[in-house]
Amino acid sequence: MNKGKARLAPYGYGANIPLFSIFLLQMRRLPYIPALFFASFLFLSCYDAERDNPCDEEAINYNEDVCLELLGLTPSSSSLLTPVSSSSVASYAYCIIDGMCLNGPYSYSECFDNLKGLPSNNCVLAPSSSSSTPPISSSVPPSSSSVVPSSSSIAPSSSSLGGGFSGSYGSLYYEGQTYKTVVIGTQTWMAENLNYNASGSRCYGDNSGGDSQNRCGTYGRLYNWVTAMGFESSCTSASCSSQIQSKHKGICPSGWHIPSDAEWTTLTSYVGSNAGTKLKAKNGWSSCGPSGSGSSYSCEDTFGFSALPGGGGYSDGSLGNVGDDGFWWSATESNADYAYHRSMAYRRDVVYYDNYNKSYLFSVRCLQD
């Protein structure tokens, strides 16, 4: 009998001997311990019966829905990108990097800072025109407005709106302010974020409803979905799809409306690849500017849309991301609690498509009827 040798059981017999027991048996044969420990670890790790983890894609009981539930997430529980700080959301289900979704969970820092991605709880990008969602019609009449539209054209400018557009702008007067307008394909858009002082709207950095930091003058005001649509507060947590018109006016001027999800898709499809780069204003974004400016990221404003990063926030008053990210509502509901929107980030060249809670505060762009 070889007293110095502890014989390993063949596959299928004694395969689950605890590693600590093996370690004790081999104490007298120290040179073999590292190899024995490594081999046993590989065997037990690859043995399916030992991989009882619904978040492990190789495990026999892998289940994405169960995993998200265990993590306190659901496919529809999207969270705004760090409204105040990276600790406001514990983790995200995905990290979107250059149009690809990486399964998480990821902390904000892991995704945004380390991987240079966009954390999200939905793995969706702007769809193609073939997947557009038709608008929903209803018989709710639009509210009145004191808009005085203008058909005149004004020369493009190199102001904070960008200046990368080589065409001409129109103008639109609404509630004391004149907005630039621009034709892109078959659509006519406001070339600025709406700055209408609707009840419940906010200026970045001012919980009083005022504009103490002069943010609204640059980035426009922020609105929850119900305010933007002109609905009662009950629509925040209840479906109001039956009240949505095909060209839903909401808080826009007469003759203009909140763009539907399908109409946003029409815009991005017309603009084509790298839509984020082409739609972002040349100025106003962190570390982002036109070619030749020496900026780290590209903002070209090719079509005169002049998207600006007004950030976003929660209804409790917390705000974040101004200068880094822009979020814009659509008129299309996702479900009772969520509605679709588009977003852009200073370091990304795409336009993101997602659904967020209706209580969040985002920017608004109006589209001509």
Describe the structure in brief.
By secondary structure, the protein is an alpha+beta fold. It is built from eight helices and 16 strands.
Q: Biggest sheet, strands in spatial order?
A: 4-5-6-7
Number of helices: 8
Largest sheet: 4 strands, antiparallel
Integer count of domains: 3
Which spans have pLDDT < 50 for at least 5 consecutive residues? 1-17, 19-25, 41-51, 66-89, 125-163
C-alpha termini separation: 93 Å
If you average the pLDDT, what whole number results? 73
Give the helices and strands as they follow along the chain: HHHEEHEEEEEHHEHHEEEEEEEE
Number of strands: 16
Cα-based radius of gyration, to the nearest Å: 27 Å
What does this structure look like?
With 369 residues, this protein is an alpha+beta fold. The chain folds into 3 domains: 1-50, no CATH class; 64-120, no CATH class; 129-368, no CATH class. 16% of the residues lie in helices and 21% in strands. The strands form 6 sheets. The protein has a 4-stranded antiparallel β-sheet with strand order 4-5-6-7. Strands 2-1-3 form a 3-stranded antiparallel β-sheet. A 3-stranded antiparallel β-sheet has the order 13-14-15. A hairpin with a 5-residue loop joins strand 11 (312-313) and strand 12 (319-320). The model is unreliable at 1-17, 19-25, 41-51, 66-89 and 125-163 (pLDDT under 50).
Blueprint of the fold:
Elements: H1 19-25, H2 33-46, H3 64-70, E1 92-97, E2 100-106, H4 108-114, E3 118-120, E4 148-154, E5 169-174, E6 177-184, E7 187-190, H5 216-219, H6 225-229, E8 256-257, H7 261-271, H8 275-279, E9 288-289, E10 297-298, E11 312-313, E12 319-320, E13 325-333, E14 338-345, E15 352-357, E16 367-368
Parallel strand pairs: 9-10
Antiparallel strand pairs: 1-2, 1-3, 4-5, 5-6, 6-7, 8-16, 11-12, 13-14, 14-15
